[in-house]
Design goal:
The structure holds two protein chains of two kinds. Chain A is mainly alpha-helical. Chain A has one domain: ABC transporter involved in vitamin B12 uptake, BtuC. Chain A has 13 helices and four strands. In chain A, strands 1-4 form a two-stranded antiparallel sheet. In chain A, a hairpin with a 2-residue loop joins strand 2 and strand 3. In chain A, helix 6 packs across helix 7 and helix 10 runs parallel beside helix 13. Chain A is globular and about 55 Å long. Chain A starts with a helix and ends in a 19-residue tail after the last helix. Chain B is mostly helical. Chain B has two domains: 47 residues, no CATH class; 274 residues, ABC transporter involved in vitamin B12 uptake, BtuC, CATH 1.10.3470. Helix content of chain B is 71%, strand content 0%. Chain B has 17 helices and no strands. In chain B, helix 5 runs antiparallel to helix 6. Classes of the chains: A mainly alpha, B mainly alpha. The interface between A and B is large, with 53 and 48 residues.
């Protein structure tokens, strides 16, 4: 049971981080379907830092640099979405999808190239290992493995609430997602606000990415991307009706179902049911479909999301 | 405005030409950026690698091997074309069918199981795959029409559900010692798509089947349905403006569901087109959704969202994807071609901007020429248009 709690909390943290990232972007008016790709690239940035920093690096510095690496990669990558969708009015769905496919392809090509170079051609896998570096992100309370990303997710939650509802910046950003022309008429720079929204989603998306690959394992095969987790996060965001507090609750629910597939063998009751493991793997996706079907009807989505900003339109 | 200046420009200013030009720009830029990534990884082999990707089957020197491998590329082009038609058809109705990837997997699953598990003949396998694919696509449609669920997110969820279910179902027809399904040729020869002698054209390539001409015929059929039938017009009208379509008495919910069912059928048919040739075997430990459906997105947009254009763009995408197998494996990985396709999809996002720029350029050019004609002509009231107005008119006309 403790194991279930541990996995639920860590997967919820990942979902919360990414969903909150998506929340900023959508409130500014840009649908960020590329979160999946941003997670992969963020994870790549963090994994490369862990791979190349000497093992003697002090733990806290290692953590800090890993996070910086992830965020740097993620923000740069999300700029690709921003420039296409905000400045060139590209279709947000196409560009988001392109970023998802590009993220996995780019990470695979780069990691394979690095592995080949370092091993002199023997290692052609797309896997990065970070066994020792991972220890810096976790602490043990008895048998409970505490992960620092749980704290980061809670901080992100509080920050999101305060920024979106209590600051001038956040309220202005949300105005751009509801009615950009009206926002522009009172002197708000819509382009700047949307850029901020997308770049912030890059920060949180990449943090979620690095948190995900550090969640249960100590090596990652980049060929697999992040297995639809970015989209699960989008489902969490929709279920949470674009509101931080509800997103947190939705993330806990989805995190629980995701965790079940990792730990059901350890729970006698579930193991006795003899359900094949693939069913547990499918669980989060099925649940999210049901949840979406039930909650999308009265969607509280930002009104102007998905529509490129055209200053001449009223 | 019936002056000769406009007549001469008509080809350059036609929408089809601009789409073609925009697609070519995407391809060239995509290859260029891919080349830069290769340079970044290893400068010495980059030119050779990008050359290998572009050459694909031409990497072989013997003519018969070239033909055989051209055949292999075509065998995989047929499913890709079906996936891209699926994406294209739905996009015309304003729906982004990213679920094509999962519908393709479902088509593969049903056709393989119908062949190996049920021992059905090839045409029944194909029909069964299409029907189940249509139902699978319709799930997305129902969720969209009645529950307002974003089709992209439900599509992705169904992709993963489809993948895991497929792995589970096909475990019953796999080889006992490997994670691959059994060879159709050995265990269900009646289920293999007939070659009707087409293989002879490709140096005896046994995998070349009726799937290839069928896929092309379906592409043309889609073109006719979309452009020439009332049904296609209704669907497109729903895509342009759902509320206007509803107001005009069209069943907009039914249209959404039907569209996604057709999309699902097309993509599933693609899955059957590949796996019923026995060219590939399904690996029941597959842990990522196959890229075929995603490449279909690239092909659909690269083809300028025109079914006939898609035939060529599908071939191109498959050509470079197959070409990825020929890069020097000591320096690069074959995923470099996935990277190039992804870059091309990204660049396709800019097509609207490119076309707008082309229109502006040709409009300002036309305006200048109209001004020149007007200046040469007598300063009479023959032409009511000032150059600016003429430009505005032509621009408007071009946008339609």
């Amino acid at each position: 049971m403790l194991l279930l709690l541990q996995y639920t909390l860590i997967f919820s943290s990942v979902l919360m981080l990414v969903a909150l990232g998506g929340c900023y972007s959508e409130h500014s008016g840009v649908i960020n379907l590329g979160l999946e790709g941003i997670m992969v690239i963020g994870a790549l940035g963090g994994a490369l830092v862990m791979r190349f920093l000497p093992a003697s690096t002090p733990g806290s510095l290692m953590v800090l640099l890993t996070l910086c690496g992830a965020v740097l990669f993620g923000v740069l990558y999300s700029a690709l979405l921003a420039v296409a969708c905000i400045n060139y009015k590209a279709d947000q769905t196409i560009v988001g999808t392109a970023l998802n496919i590009l993220g996995t392809a780019l990470a695979t090509v780069l990691v394979k190239a690095i592995n080949m170079k370092l091993s002199g051609g023997d290692d052609v896998s797309s896997t990065i290992q970070y066994v020792s570096a991972k220890q810096n992100f976790v602490a043990y309370f008895g048998s409970f493995q505490f992960n620092w990303f749980m704290v980061i997710a809670i901080i992100a939650l509080v920050v999101a609430y305060v920024v979106l509802y209590k600051t001038r910046f956040g309220l202005r950003m949300m105005a751009c997602g509801e009615h950009p022309q009206a926002a522009a008429s009172v002197g708000i720079n819509v382009y700047k606000m949307r850029w901020s929204g997308v770049l912030i989603s890059g920060i949180f998306g990449s943090l979620g990415g690095i948190a995900y690959i550090l969640a249960g394992v100590s090596e990652w095969k980049f060929e697999n991307g992040v297995a639809g987790f970015g989209f699960l996060a989008l489902a969490v965001m929709i279920f949470g009706q674009w509101k931080p507090a509800r997103i947190a609750l939705a993330a806990l629910l989805f995190g629980l179902f995701r965790a079940l597939s990792n730990v059901y063998i350890g729970i006698d009751f579930l193991a006795n049911l003899n359900i094949p493991s693939t069913v547990y793997n499918m669980f989060p996706y099925i649940i999210s479909l049901i949840v979406l079907a039930l909650t999308s009807k009265n969607s509280k989505a930002p009104k102007a999301e998905g529509i490129p900003y055209d200053p001449g339109q009223r | 405005m019936s002056n000769p200046v406009k007549e001469k420009k008509s080809i350059l200013r036609s929408d089809g030409f601009q789409s073609l030009l925009a697609s070519l720009i995407c391809i060239v830029l995509g290859l260029l950026i891919g080349f830069i990534v290769l340079l970044f990884i290893n400068p010495s082999g980059a030119a050779g690698a990008i050359g290998a990707v572009i050459k694909n089957f031409m990497n072989y020197s013997r003519a018969s091997l070239q033909l055989k491998n051209l055949g292999n590329t075509l065998v995989k082009t047929a499913p890709l074309l079906m996936c891209s038609l699926s994406v294209l058809f739905c996009y015309k109705v304003g729906l982004f069918n990213i679920g094509a990837a999962g519908q393709y997997v479902v088509g593969a699953c049903i056709s393989i199981y119908a062949a190996l598990g049920l021992g059905l003949p090839w045409w029944l396998c194909l029909i069964l795959a299409i029907v189940v694919g249509a139902v699978y696509g319709a799930i997305v449609g129902v969720l969209k029409a009645y529950c307002n669920v974003n089709e992209v997110i439900s599509g992705i969820m169904l992709n993963w559900i489809g993948l895991y279910t497929t792995n589970m179902i096909l475990t019953s027809v796999k080889e006992s010692t490997s994670p691959y399904t059994l060879h159709l040729r050995d265990y269900a020869p009646a289920s293999v798509l007939p070659g009707v002698g087409l293989g002879g054209l490709f140096a005896g390539n046994e995998y070349v089947s009726i799937a290839i001409p069928l896929a092309i015929l379906i592409a043309i059929a889609i073109k006719v349905i979309l452009d020439k039938t009332r049904f296609g017009y209704e669907l497109k009208a729903t895509g342009f403006n759902k509320n206007a379509a509803k107001y005009a008495g069209m069943a907009e919910r039914r249209n959404v569901i039907v569209t996604l069912a057709i999309g699902g059928a097309l993509a599933a048919c693609g899955g059957a087109f590949l796996y019923l040739t026995d060219y590939e075997l399904w690996e029941v430990t597959t842990s990522a959704v196959p890229g075929m459906g995603f490449n279909g997105i690239a092909a659909a947009f690269l083809g300028g969202l025109n079914p006939v254009g898609t035939i060529f763009s599908s071939y191109f995408i498959q050509h470079i994807t197959s070409g990825g197998a020929y890069v020097d494996k000591n320096l690069y990985s074959s995923q470099i071609s996935d990277l190039i396709s992804a870059i091309i999809i990204y660049l396709c996002g800019f097509v609207g901007f490119m076309k707008l720029t082309m229109k502006k350029m040709s409009a300002s050019k036309a305006a200048k020429e109209v001004a020149a004609v007007n200046a040469n002509a007598e300063p009479a009231a023959k032409s009511e248009d000032t150059p600016d107005q003429a430009a505005a008119k032509t621009e408007k006309g071009g946008n339609e």
